[in-house]
Amino acid sequence: MSADDAILSVESLAVAFGGVKAVDDVSFAVRRGEVFTLIGPNGAGKTTVFNLISRLYNPMRGRIVFEGNDITALPAHRVAALGISRTFQNIELFEHATVLQNLLIGRQVHRKTALWEEILFLPKVRRQEYAFREHVEKVIDLLDLQHYRDSHVAGLPYGIRKVVELGRALAMQPRLLLMDEPSSGLNVEETEDMAFWIQDINQDLDITVVMVEHDMSLVSRVSHRVLALNQGAVVTVGTPKDVQSHPGVVEAYLGKAAHA
Amino acid sequence: MRFLFKTDYDQDIRLAKHGGHVFWYSLLGVALLAAPWLLSEYLLEQLVLVCIYAVAGLGLMLLSGFTGLISLGHAAFLGVGAYTEAVLVGMGWPFPLAMSAAVVLSAATGVVVGLPALRVRGIYLAIATLALGVIVEEVLTRWEDVTGGSAGLMVKSPTLFGAAVPQPVGFYYLCLGILVVATLAVLNLLRSPTGRAFVAVRDSEISSQSMGIHLAKAKTLSFALSAALTGLAGALYAHKLRFLSPEQFTVLQSVELLMMIFIGGLGSVHGVFLGALFLITLPQGIAVAKDWLPPAIGGAAGLQSTVFGLIIVGFVLFEPLGLYGRWVKIRLYLQTFPFYRKGTFRREKTFQKTERQR
Lengths: 260, 358
Hints:
The complex is a heterodimer.
Chain A: E1 6-17, E2 20-31, E3 35-39, H1 46-53, E4 61-66, E5 69-70, H2 76-82, E6 84-86, H3 99-105, H4 115-120, H5 123-142, H6 158-171, E7 176-180, H7 188-203, E8 208-212, H8 216-222, E9 225-230, E10 233-238, H9 240-245, H10 247-254
Parallel strand pairs in A: 3-8, 3-9, 6-7, 7-8
Antiparallel strand pairs in A: 1-2, 1-4, 4-5, 9-10
Chain B: H1 10-13, H2 19-38, H3 41-66, H4 74-90, H5 95-114, H6 122-142, H7 144-147, E1 153-154, E2 159-160, E3 163-164, H8 169-190, H9 193-203, H10 205-210, H11 215-241, E4 243-244, H12 251-264, H13 269-292, H14 295-298, H15 303-318, H16 322-336
Antiparallel strand pairs in B: 1-4, 2-3
Helix pairs in contact in B: 3-8, 3-9, 3-11, 3-12, 3-13, 4-5, 4-6, 4-11, 5-11, 9-11, 12-13, 12-16, 13-16
């Protein structure tokens, strides 16, 4: 694979917490336009890789390159401005704000007004609000959130919050979307919807998706390529089918004796 | 019951959401403008205090209610504002200029006090601000050349365009005007990206970072704006008191300010006004009640603090959303009568966040 069709490349990334090597020499490259999934048993380092990419953790070694820019040393808030947005495993929404306000925060990186202009609420600020809301409404339409637009997040059921969080990430208009366990805590029907949305986001909105996921039927349905991690190291990369039958992956999940 | 059909983004953006708002706020505006004719001089003085406390409360609400940073040192900003105003007006500066200087200096103090906010949070931040509040109080006491120390400092009357602002009516209008401008500024801020960023920082630092919000910048800005508003209130306070001494800007004053926005309702601009009204009227109410109570209770020292304490406990237990939260419930009850259900505002308990990143 040539360097220019990789939107994100991670080179020999490593981080340790105390004596635990959470991520140890992990390298992979995500192609523009694909759905790339990280799988692995609990504690394999999937979420840690996410937190390294979104710069919440500092790697001890290695490099992260997004669209040709080295983001390894950037502060977390700068990563968003470059076009990477993410969702969290345990939903990190702004609880005491409405769904609409949550989605509008997704537009934060596109803010063009100065503080004094906002205090006076000049026509420029109002026009910016129109533009923000117009975009947010598109996201609301895509994810069928119309009914919840003005509800406070704190009162919403888990499944809806999950969707709101996806919406907030989309409102940013990212080029790369990191989804940490999009289907966790969702019922079968909600997982179905999530699968459709991931495909829509990927194909219609042209957003490259990197996700961490445990639900293998969802993984094989939506992802182009899968990377299996175990104990902080890469086991294998390939199509969902190849990875699922890879002896190393089977061993990681089921143990040695369970060889098929 | 009112149903709003939204067909326009402006319906969400504009401040008055429907005809009812326009009507009631206009009525309130007229009543406030007519207050000097409707109220006795004593009550007008109290209303001036409500206005001043409300300006300070707006500042603290922005910080604690909307950015989630608890400050136990806000009396320091009030003090910096008040003393700057007093000293500069004493040196013959025109009143608007002195007030601007008070605002700028308070904001600068706010940035300094806000520095620990970048590292610590919650109760630790409260302790840090408490310490800085004590430092400012100490400076006011020790720096006798400028502040007059414990002996106090007289404050000249404000002059505007070469003429003294007439007491109390002129000063009342001045305070009211400043309050209205400050309120509009805060409301504008809250409906634009900066205000949303504050709320984001309050609710989840981790995801606001990932949404592209610079945490340190947002927190420092919040501290600066909050201190600026409180300093503005301090400048007015100086003219209201006409005599300043460091005892007016102690930790107790900070606690009183915090209590005001807490009782009013954290996270709502309405709460500021309800809280300010409550804070000013309660001592009056207690004074009246004293005559009715048996002398053993009515004459007891510390009656006021006891009542304040009981009220705080009551709010914590029964109405954490404060007076404004209570009002929202009453309003809904009236709107939906007789269909109000008891569980309407009961919050679902969400599961414990185990892996929440800090």
